[in-house]
Amino acid sequence: MPGAATTTAVGAEAARRRTFAVISHPDAGKSTITEALALHARVIGEAGAVHGKAGRRGVVSDWMAMEQQRGISITSAVLQFAYRDLVVNLLDTPGHADFSEDTYRVLTAVDCAVMLLDAAKGLEPQTLKLFEVCRARRIPVITFINKWDRPGREPLALLDEIEQRINLRPTPITWPVGTAGHFHGVVDRRTGEMTAFQRTPGGATAAVEEQLTPAEAAHRYGGDWQRAVEELDLLGLTGADHDQDTFMAATTTPVLFGAAVANFGVRQLLEVLASHAPAPQPRVDTGGTPRGVDAPFAGFVFKIQANMNKAHRDQVAFVRVCSGRFSRGMTVTHAGTGRPFATKYAQQMFGASRETIDEAYPGDVIGLVNATALGIGDTLHDGPAVAFPPLPSFTPEHFAVLRAADISTFKRFRRGVEQLDAEGVVQVLRSDRRGDQAPVLAAVGPMQFEVAVARLDAEFGVPTQLEHLPYREARRTDAASQERLLGVPDAEVLTRLRDGALLALFTSGWRMRSIADSRPGVTLEPLLAAD
Ligand code: G4P
Q1: Which UniProt keywords apply (predicted)?
Q2: Ligand 1 lined by 32 (C-beta under 6 Å)
Q3: 91 Cβ below 6 A of ligand 1
């Protein structure tokens, strides 16, 4: 019976998917570990190049001149590779100057995250912001402490920081032998065996590993081994052991140590992804019913990228497959409008490379070209109708008033602003005081403003001017509080177009608290709520 066979096959394909993203602060080694992971695994298809900074090996996509000048990739896309019998999807989380709402949104499309820390720096600001999104969405997190080949902090101190600052209990899987800077290898806490690493020049190939019994390790590494054993005893006493249930509930995190640049510990990370990271789970629809992974095809758009290819003026919608088998050419339904949507031009992409994709399964990401009818958060499905909850909006930290340089272009200006809002390029806020001609753009990263201005000019023929506002904090508020905040210096309340939410903006956290203290009854809620 083909139907039943297909259903089973889809379930099996879903079970061998691992879809994750790396959350880190710039320079912790995300590009390096991505390259190292790809080296251990077999990259599927041609699109294997990994994006990196200008001048390094890799692909730098070229959809905007701005991007080329800066040598960064604005495109969030996916690297797909095979490891053992698994298909691993690593979704890119743009950092550096291109940190934006897109970076957060990628986390709506993954089943797990790898938190990458620099051993000398521990938790850094961008990692903390991304972690908060993981926490709100209850995404299980695996921690990789990187750069162990050079001087850093004590491993126990790093674990303590994770537990104290973000209330996530570390449960190390491996433990380093040798202090940071004098790294010999790692002990697998489950077996007690040590894996000794030998450097290969530049980390260009997988590290040479040697398995040692505890006796062999003690003989070879003496005091360093002894110290690792003592630290392991201490960990054993505190019961910091991996527990799959608490990991899945996102209250504990398995921890690994390594040096991505030398390829140390990267295979161990892949092993943990394979054995512990969750496969795609049923996604709950707006009615609260989970849609099993082997239900008919369904997916949602988590990113829209316009004009990736200047020559074609195209628009690509990135869809995370949640259930069923996707095959190129199938006609699916756009849940929002009920209209059919043809998928002739489905692609898989990473950076500037594209290739046609023929089929995809839960956990995979497909790029739909010329998908102008689709918006962020839209559901596509086959078979009976299904809709997934809208994607959350994330907390903006940068604000600017946008005006058309020439008032006669207002109609196009308004259309362009609506389009950028629908695509999630920026959040658009309005108030009666400022009027429609001067909307306030809100962004997670300032680069989103530059993209908005460049696109309004290039695609809508509307030159615009930005006036940066001094606000840095945003909270959700209500109509009564809006009244109370009227005319208060260093504060302003605006309405978000996307969902009608009232956002109170403040120039600083300190000022926000002092305003709230002096006006009891003003409601200020965090914008990022757990769903
Ligand atoms: P990012 O994508 O997170 O921003 O970081 P990226 O991989 O670009 O790494 C940032 C810097 O840290 C790079 O050095 C990289 O070589 C280095 N790095 C990454 N992993 C390790 C590690 O395990 N050990 C050590 N010692 N360094 C590491 P760079 O000087 O900025 O670039 P490059 O000239 O080395 O390529």
Answers
A1: Cytoplasm, GTP-binding, Nucleotide-binding, Protein biosynthesis
A2: yes
A3: no
Q: Which atom of ligand 1 has the smallest separation from the CA of 116?
A: 3
Report how far ligand 1's centroid is from the alpha carbon of 45 (Å): 26
Query: How far, in Å, are 22, 76, 82, 393, 433 from residue 258 at the CA level?
Result: 15, 26, 22, 34, 54
Q: Ligand 1: which of 261, 264, 268 to mutate, most ligand atoms within 8 Å of CB?
A: 261
The answer to whether the annotation marks 252 as part of a ligand binding site is no
Euclidean distance between CA atoms 185 and 265, whole angstroms:
8
Amino acid at 411: K
Q: Which two tokens stand for residue 232?
A: 């392991």
From 130-134, 201-205, 300-304, the region with the lowest mean pLDDT: 201-205
State yes or no: 93 annotated in a binding site: yes
Instruction: List, by residue range, all CATH 2.40.30.10 domains of the chain.
Output: 283-381
CATH numeric code, 283-381: 2.40.30.10
Give the CA count within 13 Å in the CB-facing half-sphere of 219.
5
Decide: 477 in ligand 1 pocket, CB within 6 A.
Answer: no
3-state secondary structure of 19: strand
Q: Which of 82-86, 142-146, 291-295 has the lowest mean pLDDT?
A: 82-86
Q: Which DSSP symbol is given to 53?
A: S
- As given in the structure block, the two tokens for residue 112 are 């797990």
Is the shortest distance between the CB of 58 and ligand 1 below 6 Å?
Answer: no
Place of tokens 């003026």: 313
CATH 3.40.50.300 maps onto the chain at 20-73+95-101+113-276
Nearest to 170 by CA among 147, 196, 142: 142
Report whether 353 contacts 367 (CB < 8 A): no
Do the Cβ atoms of 193 and 206 come closer than 8 Å? Answer: no
Residue-level pLDDT at 353: 53
96 labelled as ligand-binding?
yes
Task: Give the CA distances from residue 244 to residues 159, 203, 240, 262, in Å, rounded to whole numbers and listed in that order.
Answer: 19, 32, 12, 29
Residue 94 annotated as part of some ligand binding site: yes
> What is the predicted pLDDT for the residue at 47?
32
Q: What pLDDT, on the 0 to 100 scale, is given for residue 491?
A: 96
| Yes or no: domain 398-518 corresponds to CATH 3.30.70.3280 | yes
Instruction: Classify 403 as helix, strand or coil.
Output: strand
Which residue has a Cα nearest atom 16 of ligand 1?
Answer: 261
Count of other CB atoms within 10 angstroms of residue 410: 14
Q: Whose CA is nearest to atom 18 of ligand 1?
A: 29
Assess whether the C-beta atom of 260 lies below 6 angstroms from ligand 1. yes
Measure the CA angle with vertex 13, ends 270 and 265; round to 5°.
0
